[in-house]
Amino acid sequence: MKKVIAIIAILMLSVGYGHAQETERYSIKNLDINNEYSNFGTSYYGKDKIIYASPRKGSKMIKNVWKPNEQPFLDLYIGDIAEDGEITNSSKLNKDVNSKYHEADVVYTNDLKTVYFTRDNYYDGKLNKAKDGMVNLAMFKADVVAPGEWKNVEPMPFNDPEYSVGHPALSPDNKTLYFVSDIPGGYGQTDIYKVSINEDGTYGSPINLGPKVNTAGREMFPFMAGKNILYYSSDKPGGMGNLDIYAVKLDGRSEPINLGLPINSFKDDFAFLKRVGDDHGYFSSNRTSGKGDDDIYYFKELVPLKMPCSQIAEGVVRDKNTGKRIPGALVILYDADGNELDVQIVKEDAKFSFDVDCESNYKVVGSKQNYSEDSKEFASNAELELGLDLDLNIDKGVVEQAAEGVVKKLEYDSCQEALDNIDNIYFDLDKSYIRPDAASELDKVVKIMKRCPNIKIEASSHTDSRASKAYNEALSQRRAQSTVDYIVNVGGISPERIHAVGYGETRLRNRCSDGVKCSETEHQVNRRTQFDISNY
C-alpha cells in the first residue's frame, strides 16, 4: 500500500509541475565536494570563488535548517569555481571569521570590500541569550581584507537576543539589504524583510515584504537576481515538499512562481544562487538522493524562466494653456485594437494610474466638460522602474464655443454634442442621493435643455457589480429618478422632457464584474448617470 501511495504522490507532482519537466527547464548535478556532512548556502566572491557553510569535521547535521540550537557548529569555507561548476581547493576562512559558534550565509558588496553574514548572536566574546535561554541568530557586517580574511566585525543595529536575524542578501545596487527574521508581528514563523543602506553607513527601518512573499509558514534564504526578482524558499501550502524555491517579481502584484522539478523536491530546497545573465548557478537541498544531510547542487538553466510582467502607467491631467491640474477629468485606457480596458475619474490631485502588461501598446484618452479631448499613445516595456509619466493636456474652450452654436442654431446634433461634453454624475456606494459635485453637472444639463427647448433626454443610471442583479436594477432606477427629480424640481424642466431608466449592472465600463477584485475607484466609475437625447 505504501508503494501505491508513493506512486500516486509522484503522479500528482508530475501533473502540478509537468511544465518544468516537459520543457526540461533545468539540469542539475550533485557536486563532488559533498560528503556525509552538511554543505549548503553558497555565495559568490568575485568571478571565480565561492563561499559556503559546512559543519566542523566529525559533527552531524540535524535536518532542520532554521533551529540553530539543535545543530552542530557551522564554519565558512571558500573554494574555486571550476569550469564544470565544481567547487575545488576549499579552505576554511580564518579564525576572525569563524568563531566557536555557527557562521553561515554571506553576501559581499559589489566592490568586495564589505561582507554581511549570519552567526549565532556572539559578539565581542559574549554569547547573547534570549530570556528563555535560547541563542538566536544575528547578522553582522565586516570589512574584507582578503578572500578569506575579514576584520572590524560589527553587529547590525536591528539584532535582538529575543529573535533571529539572518540570511542576508543585497540588491544589485547594494542600496537595499534583505534578510530573514522572526521579529514579532510578522506574517508567519519567519518572514523576509528589507532595509535601506544609507550613504552615511546607517540603516533605515526594517520593512516586511508583505503577503505576496510572506505567509504563515517559513520564508527563508532570499537572493536578489536583477533589479526586482527575488528568489527565496518557503514551506507554504501548495509546494512540492518542505521548503521549495520560488521566484517573484517585487512589484506588490505578482504571484510567486514555484521553480518546480528538478530544482524542488519532496524535501528542503533552498539557497538559490545565480548571477544576472548567467544560465547556471547553485542551490542546496537535503533530498534523499543526496550524499549528506544537505548538499550543494549545480544547475544549468536550459529554458529561461519568464516572469509575469506588469507595469504602472501613470500621469496627470492638466490644462493645456495654464498647466493647472484638472480634477474630475475622465481618463480611459485602450489597447492597441481600440478596446476599452479601464476607466478612471481623477481626484483632486488629477492623477491617474493604470496597471498594464509589459511590451504592449496602449492609448489613454482624457476628457472633461468644457475641454477638448486629448490622447496619448505609449508602449510599455519590461523595466518595472521605468515609470510612464503621461501628462494629458486638454484644451479648454472648444465646447463653450459649441454651446454658443446651440443657442443660435438649436440643431439636434449640436445639442447632442453639448450633452456629450457633460460629465457623468456619480453616486456613493448603495446610495441614490445627488452629491454636490453631481448637482453642478445637473445644472449644466438644465442650461442645455433650456437652450434646446425641442429636445427630450434620457437619464440612464447604472450601478457597480456588487449586490444582486435585481437589487442593482432597483437601485439604478432610484438613481435615475433622483436625477430626473433634480432637473424637474430644481431646474424647472418639464417632466415630459426627461425620462429615467435604470440599467443596473448590465453596462459596466470596466473589468469589475462579479467576483473580480477591484478598487473603490474602479467601482466608482460604474455608479453613474449618463445623458442622451431620446425620441421616447
Descriptive account of the structure:
The structure is a single chain. The termini are far apart. A hairpin with a 5-residue loop joins β12 and β13. The model is unreliable at 1-23, 58-71 and 398-412 (pLDDT under 50). The strands form 9 sheets. Strands 1-22-21-20 form a 4-stranded antiparallel β-sheet, with no helix packed on it. A 4-stranded antiparallel β-sheet has the order 2-3-4-5, with no helix packed on it. It is an alpha+beta fold. It has helices at residues 2-16, 18-22, 398-409, 412-420, 436-451, 469-489, 520-526; strands at residues 26-30, 40-45, 49-55, 74-81, 87-92, 103-108, 114-120, 122-123, 126-127, 137-146, 149-155, 165-170, 176-181, 191-196, 207-208, 219-225, 229-234, 244-249, 257-258, 269-274, 280-285, 295-301, 310-319, 330-335, 340-345, 351-357, 361-367, 374-379, 388-394, 425-426, 456-461, 498-502, 528-534. The chain has 3 domains: 2-301, 6 Propeller (Neuraminidase), CATH 2.120.10.30; 310-394, Immunoglobulin-like; 401-534, 60s Ribosomal Protein L30, Chain: A, CATH 3.30.1330. It contains 7 helices and 33 strands.
